[in-house]
């Protein structure tokens, strides 16, 4: 974009921004916010020592036209590598320095997994639509006692919208954006007597940019665009069968088609991918008065069809999840939770027919926890899980989480927990890079910090330090998966939210993470930093301001520190460490609401048109881009 046009745009947007954190309330603390992810049942944040962030519906609405990857990339301690790249580029989730396979992603409390192993066991974020999300609860730290093997770095619970109010409510949005992008959502929801429902459809289409960056010395630097087309359908129903029993069947299907390039600085014209996710099941709750019994069943099918210059490949993975648990208020200050879950993953892939054939693994895990709730300011969680794995035997994990709230002004907390993670089916059995001799990973995690609420809760300050020690860590080295001796990561997070004036909200955050792996080389232990593509330092500034009743503006500045990548130059057989420079991105947002039922909005991203930074060595990033559109509710 020309400088003159850029200046006019900047003035017209009044230096607003895209800050998803802004709140219009006079209270910035989340002490009284009720969450479900910390303990698997509803509890105020003041009653738990877990480190949580809640992304509200209001914040989600200010990201229409964007993606879940964009929203998560603005959270403390989370880096989505690829969020600023071509929309079809894979989005790599790093949570407190750990890769995606160490984060559990839930939809309404049910794990959504990918047995194909393309992204470890975590679901591909490109398959997750944002438009029907009610809120997102981000739970930090090892949570294996309540959520199983993959919850080493944390848990992300995506809570979808449900039907309520009138029998029929219509809503939707339509967005136009850069690179010939169009996105639209249409939904119906409502409630009649004892039944509520929510149905929606989303379509997204973009020409994108070239996934690979042309070499600087290329004679013809013009690479073709690599587009993306995505469709998502969602339906959930709530049936109040009796006064105590509620049933909630659900179904989500989403797919995308994308083009991709041959590698760093390498264009391709024939590489195409088609991926799909079917997520379905049922949730049930039975009210006991002083507690509830919960029953969950989930099934996911992930299928990928890939055609490239190297040939065709199909990956087909199935995941099964069932769970029964109950919580009960023993006294006013003592709560108990007991449950059991079953998980199974299997591969039905033509790519795995030789030499291993169809493979599966499963585990059964009983678990239990006791909670002391606000006993003169003291709260405490003690829990354990016993995992019986079909391949790797039995393992016990635990959680100890005391916290103390002083005069509703200062919360102190400590978390000590352990984790157990079995290798994925792909890392074990892939004929290309699998290793059937892999051992499971074992983790011990430590976390401590405080949260202070000052000046009549107009200031909310949270400081957290963490340490994570992992044995038998699995890494992909020299085209094969291997166990290393151990992985040691540590870091700190600082979040400051304040409201200096009515209608004005500010949030500043900073995260530090460092880590190294220790392995044997020539009979001696060797340690080195292995946090590829993960910065030691990251942070951001978010400012939101309601100018008048119907006009809201905000700005978001995100800084990502220097990192390094493992880079294979075109035609090279040996990788080198390639440094990636630090970069800062400035985004802006504005909306105008009319009649309480609709709004006009505009997102402006990377407004300084920074094209020189790199998320992945040899791949392109989006320069200045924007989305504008309209949303409505009837």
From TrEMBL:
InterPro entries: Beta-barrel_TonB (IPR000531), Beta-barrel_TonB_sf (IPR036942), Plug_dom (IPR012910), Plug_dom_sf (IPR037066), TonB-dep_rcpt-like (IPR039426), TonB_box_CS (IPR010916). Coiled coil: none annotated. Its main location: membrane. It is found in: Cell outer membrane. GO terms for cellular component: cell outer membrane. It holds the Pfam family TonB_dep_Rec_b-barrel. It comes from the Bacteria. The keyword Transmembrane applies. Residues 1-22 form the signal peptide. Residues 45-155 form the TonB-dependent receptor plug domain. It is a multi-pass membrane protein. GO terms for biological process: cobalamin transport; monoatomic ion transport. Residues 258-607 form the TonB-dependent receptor-like beta-barrel domain. Belongs to the TonB-dependent receptor family. PANTHER family: COLICIN I RECEPTOR-RELATED, TONB-DEPENDENT OUTER MEMBRANE RECEPTOR. This is Vitamin B12 transporter BtuB. The lineage of its organism: Bacteria, Pseudomonadati, Bacteroidota, Chitinophagia, Chitinophagales.
